[in-house]
Amino acid sequence: MKAFSTLNDFFKEHKLNYIIGIIWLILIDGVQIVVPQILRKVTNLLQYGQLTSQELIKYIILILLTGLAIAIGRYFWRVYIFGTSRKLEYHLRDMLFNHLLTLSTNYFNIHTTGDLMAHATNDINAVRASLGQGIVMLVDAIFLTIMSIIMMAKTTNIKLTTITLLTLPFITIIVGKFGKIIHKRFRLVQEAFSNLTDITRENFSGIRVIKSFVQEESAFKKFTQANEYNLNKNMELVKVSGIFHPLVQFISSLSFLVVIVYGSKLVMLDTISLGDFIAFNNYLGLLIWPMMAVGFVINIIQRGIASMERINNILNEKPEIVDFPNAIPLAKVKGKIEYKNVYFKYPNSQSYALKNINFTVKEGNTLAIVGRTGSGKTTIVNLLLRLYDIDKGSILLDNIDIRNIQIKSLRENISYVPQDNFLFSSTIRDNIGFAFDKEISEEQIIYASKIAEVYDDIMELPDGFDTVLGERGVTLSGGQKQRVAIARAIVKDAPILILDDSLSSVDTQTEERILNNLKNVMSKKTTIIISHRISTVKNADQIIVLDEGEIIERGNHESLLEIDGLYKYLHEKQLLEEKVYGNAKEGQYE
Ligand SMILES: Nc1ncnc2c1ncn2[C@@H]1O[C@H](COP(=O)(O)OP(=O)(O)OP(=O)(O)O)[C@@H](O)[C@H]1O
After folding, report:
1. What pLDDT sits at residue 587?
2. Is CATH 3.40.50.300 what the domain over 420-493 is classified as, yes or no?
3. pTM for this one?
4. Cα–Cα distance measured from residue 435 to residue 428, given in angstroms and rounded to the nearest whole number
């Protein structure tokens, strides 16, 4: 139960709703207890021929009123208890999502999206069930049981009550045992179905690859396997729940059998009246549900606690990258960047991704980073953004160690075009204006998309800037995505601009046009350009060449060509490739 203390604030705010809901529930339990009493009266009057039409009307009205009261009461306890548990689900999901947003990049390297989705759905549902259905079952189990048993013993016969009650705990035991098995199998069904969904989604996302490799048959085989697994898991669930319900019914009917055999004997001996007998049967009917509820409630609450503990583990997870106590906010930086003896190892890695990195980029200058794949280029900018913290050395921005700058203001000062050009499934307008909470002006969007050379492409789309991207929208080409991502960074207009391999999917002519357009933008900013292509970086003020995490060459285009090193080799290789293959990138085939 301690696990739920995370929700104390919620309980404080909503306790009145729970209290009102529970009061309604107890009131309805009370009204339900009255119904057998009415039946007892009517039967007794009938048995002794004393039921006048006036009396009959009175009891009919009474039964109607109790039915109405039960219906109204059910509505209210449902709204108050289930409604509050839905609010709790909303609150918890918000809390979890908000907390996940604060966690550092590394957390998402370790935990898969599937895992996080399972916490956000299955675990939260289990917590909601325990604090919704769980509460209802607990209240019913306590009140309906106590009230029914008291009424049975007090108004009918203690001996009959005792004998009948001996069979009822079996229902609780069976529900408890089967509940566990059913839940286990239900989880397997959920897993099998989510696996089937994943396979289906992946097959349709990769339909072009499947078709071009003529792998339809093997894709179908894999799908059928997963589909069959899903069917088997469902069959296992059906079998166990198929036994469960009849078994509970069977035991309940055994209880009724006891009542019929022993109860009718008592009626014949005149120890109890026929009305008592009818009322007793009704109380027994009322008792079946709370007996089942006792079995369910233990499982539901146990599951809720286990899920809450899993959620608490995430909520207790501290972000690795946080503001240092004396970190200061920066308004607008000038843009001088300095790396001093920087060493860095990724959290799960044994070897250094960067070793002894030293460079200075003056305010308004451009630094280019080139190097083979995996040499550490992206890692350099990851560190400037403080997506990871360095192990040794220091990184300074305007002569201040970035660990002494508040992360929010550090990142606000950087316009970043990441390598994967991720775009959200919303409109192009929303994607370009992503850095701002409010909508940006049409002029700003047009200006940025023109600089990024994507304006004409967007205008050809059916809804222009309002074209929706993503699964339910338009799919942009790799080069178009890159250019929308560049426009997004231009609109942000931060003093530092980082382009991480952001022109790799555009042809060299478009690249040249973009770089030309960017000249004006870049003249007022400090820029870091990462690229495999020498054509992208040749105009930079300073170029560093990385190899296996170390700077092996530095200078400008001309001075680097004088050294017989990696830069010159890459340059010559690319010139040769261009001559041989021509310019076979996006643009020519679009
Ligand atoms: N999250 C991570 N955890 C562990 N190792 C990583 C992680 N990200 C990158 N690396 C490793 O760090 C090294 C440098 O990677 P980085 O992405 O900086 O290279 P890069 O020069 O930008 O490569 P590319 O040109 O292919 O983008 C590589 O060996 C890579 O495998």
Report:
1. 40
2. yes
3. 0.79
4. 13
350 lines ligand 1 (CB under 6 A): no
Q: pLDDT value at position 473?
A: 58
Would you state the pLDDT for residue 471? 62
Query: Which ligand 1 atom is nearest residue 105's CA?
Result: 1
Residue 490: per-residue pLDDT: 92
Q: Are 104 and 387 in contact (CB under 8 A)?
A: yes
Instruction: For the sheet with 366-371, list strands across it.
Output: 414-417, 496-500, 526-531, 366-371, 542-547, 550-555
Checking ipTM against 0.90, whether it exceeds it is yes
Q: What pLDDT, on the 0 to 100 scale, is given for residue 382?
A: 93
| Ligand 1 centre distance from Cα of residue 515 (Å) | 26
374 lines ligand 1 (CB under 6 A): yes
On whether the CB atoms of residues 241 and 182 are closer than 8 A, the answer is: yes
Is the CB of residue 109 below 6 angstroms from any atom belonging to ligand 1? Answer: yes
378: Cβ below 6 Å to ligand 1? yes
Rounded to an integer, what distance in angstroms lies between the CA atom of residue 190 and that of residue 198? Answer: 12
CA distance readout (Å), 224 to 217, 228, 238, 478: 10, 6, 20, 33
Q: Are 304 and 131 in contact (CB under 8 A)?
A: yes
353 lines ligand 1 (CB under 6 A): yes
* Ligand 1 neighbourhood includes 495 CB (under 6 angstroms): no
| Nearest partner of 387 among 327, 428, 434, 346, judged by Cα | 346
The full set of domain ranges for the chain reads: 157-271, 420-493
Quote the pLDDT of residue 589: 34
Residue 581's pLDDT is what? 64
Q: How far is the CA of 532 from the centre of ligand 1 (A)?
A: 14
For the chain, which ranges sit under pLDDT 50? 584-590
Residue 379, ligand 1, Cβ within 6 A: yes
